Amino acid sequence: MKENIPIVMMKRNPINKKRELSDIVLGLLGTLLALYGLTVFNQHTLMTLSLGVRMMAMILTYWLVATVPIIIMLICKENLFDYGFTKNKICQQILVGILVGIAFSVVLTLIPHILKLGNLVDSGKRYTHLWQFAYEFLYCIFAVGLVEEFLFRGFFYAKIKRISNDTTALFSSSVLFGLFHLFVGNVFQMVITIFLGAVWCLCRNKIKYCSTLSLVIAHGIYDALITVWASILLQ
Fold first, then answer.
1. Residue 126 CB: number of other CB atoms within 10 A?
2. In angstroms, rounded to a whole number, what is the distance separating the alpha carbons of residues 173 and 167?
3. Residue 155 belongs to what domain range?
4. Are 177 and 148 in contact, with CB atoms under 8 Å apart?
């Protein structure tokens, strides 16, 4: 059983359930609208930019997806500690994140490649240069991992838990995580991400020193290694 890391939560006495529910709805609508805008931008504008500008834009524009939840967080006078982040044992949190990310990658990506099922977990990206792999890790951790963990294991999980319970929050935030990926993927990816979201929630709740920061790192490493394995094994 995990020795829980103290998580600073702002006291709400009593919890305004209508306010929390409206925050969830507005946050979800804002997230999906921003995701749609980002998808359009990537399809019609991103590739017209120079390589350096495009690399920066990919990271910075992904944070637009979290704009509305961030605004809600500030209006409610909340902070990252309300969403599962903590200052305690940072090095241990980082180490746990690395180990969890590698473990997930081995089980869900490397083993399928070994079993000749790599097409099911292929990102479609193929890299040949070291700098490309390095950038993939930066992008997956500081854009995809940071934004999506803040949203789904942070903002939505915390808000749902306040008006229900931990089990409902785990299930609901994971379903929202899956639906989020339906807009940029397919039904298979949606099912996988629902499963991933649920297990990542369990990791944070059960593994010692596993925080939302740990999941940011784990998520980023897991996503980046998808491209690494594909580029190496599917050449």
1. 13
2. 10
3. 17-233
4. yes
